[in-house]
Amino acid sequence: MSCAACREAVSADLDGESPGAPQTWVDEHLGRCPACRGWAEAAAEVTRRARLTPVAAVPDVTAAVLGRLPAVQPAARSRAWLDGALRLALLAVGAGQLAVSLPALLGAGGAAAAPVHLAHETGAWNLGLAACFLGVAVLPRLAAGALPFLLPFTAVLAWVTVGDLGTGHVHPGRAVGHLLLLGGAVLVSWLALRNRGARTGPTGERVARPVTRWAVARGAEPGRWAERPAAPGWRAAGPAARAAVGVEGGGERAAA
Predict the structure, then answer these.
(1) Residue 172: alpha-carbon gap to chain centroid
(2) What whole-number distance in Å separates Cα of residue 87 and Cα of residue 92?
(3) How distant, in Å, are the alpha carbons of 52, 126, 246 from that of 252?
(4) Contacts of 202 (CB under 8 A, 6+ apart)
(5) Which DSSP symbol is given to 200?
(6) Residue 134, C-beta contacts closer than 8 angstroms, at least 6 positions apart
(7) Strand ranges for the chain from DSSP E
(8) If 0-12 CB within 10 Å is exposed, 13-18 middle and 19+ buried, where does residue 79 land?
(9) 96-113: string of b/e by CB count within 10 Å (b at 16+)?
(10) CA distance 8 to 230
């Protein structure tokens, strides 16, 4: 057995792992190799001192840290109040949009001015808008996902409604009903912007992603695995050295 293999086996045995070689080989090598035996004795001495060194007391700074925290957070309270107000307003808009959709779906008053299917189609659109507003009011994180559909629809409808009002193709009372859609689109956009700001830190910087075990395994450079950490430089030796450490430690404990 070479010196390198012997020391590797000693280190593995100390770590509670399989030494990879019969223990008798390791003991025989330590018995006839002065260099490895000296290394084992030095490692045993360092290990003994490390185990007997008392742990330094760490001061408790909990009270100091808690004492520096602000007693009140007016910005957080103001934000919570505004978010609640926006959600309540969006709930009201959604309820109003739902009330607008029901008559057309139920056939009350829509058939005289337009074909029945067109009235049902309009009612379905209004019902979908109501569901969008109510869903975002309950779950504000969905606001950004509703904007790609909601903003183009609102912009086109507002444009054609203004033109139809000028030519007299739409009753003013029906055009006023579109204000619910306009208000809902504004509220959803506002909530989307506020939720987007919540994903950043207090200074506007992006919050760092949580560190996962895969990120730790890859190391600093993505796509490459980090090398296994090197073993400590000093480790205890085999059974003979550990027995010596046990005898010395037992004597010191008895003396204490």
Answers:
(1) 50
(2) 9
(3) 10, 86, 10
(4) none
(5) B
(6) 90, 91, 94, 95, 98
(7) none
(8) middle
(9) bbbebbeebbeeeebeee
(10) 12
Q: What digits encode the pLDDT tens for the residues 16-68?
A: 677 778 888 888 888 888 888 887 777 777 767 777 777 778 888 888 888 88
What length is written for the chain?
A: 256
Distance CA 151, CA 134 (A): 16
Q: Both tokens of residue 187?
A: 């509220």
Nearest to 248 by CA among 29, 7, 2, 52: 52
Q: Which of 78, 123, 86 is CA-nearest to residue 104?
A: 123
Phi, psi of 205 (to 5 degrees): -80, 150
Confidence of residue 108 (pLDDT cuts 50, 70, 90): low
Question: In whole angstroms, what is the distance from residue 244 CA to residue 234 CA?
Answer: 16
**For 200, phi and psi rounded to 5 degrees?**
-105, 165
Q: What digits encode the pLDDT tens for the residues 175-222?
A: 887 888 888 889 889 888 888 755 544 444 444 444 444 444 444 444
Q: Which two tokens stand for residue 246?
A: 């046990």
Helix then strand then coil, in percent of the chain rounded to 5, is 70, 0, 30
Q: Taking the domains of the chain in order of start, what are their residue ranges? A: 1-53, 79-198
Report the SS3 class of residue 206.
strand
Which residues are CB-contacts of 96 (< 8 A; sequence separation ≥ 6)? 180
Instruction: Kindly give, in sequence order, each residue whose CB lies less than 8 Å from that of residue 234, ignoring residues fewer than 6 positions away.
Output: 42, 43, 46, 47
What is this structure's pTM? 0.42
47, two tokens: 């290990």
**pLDDT of amino acid 245:** 42
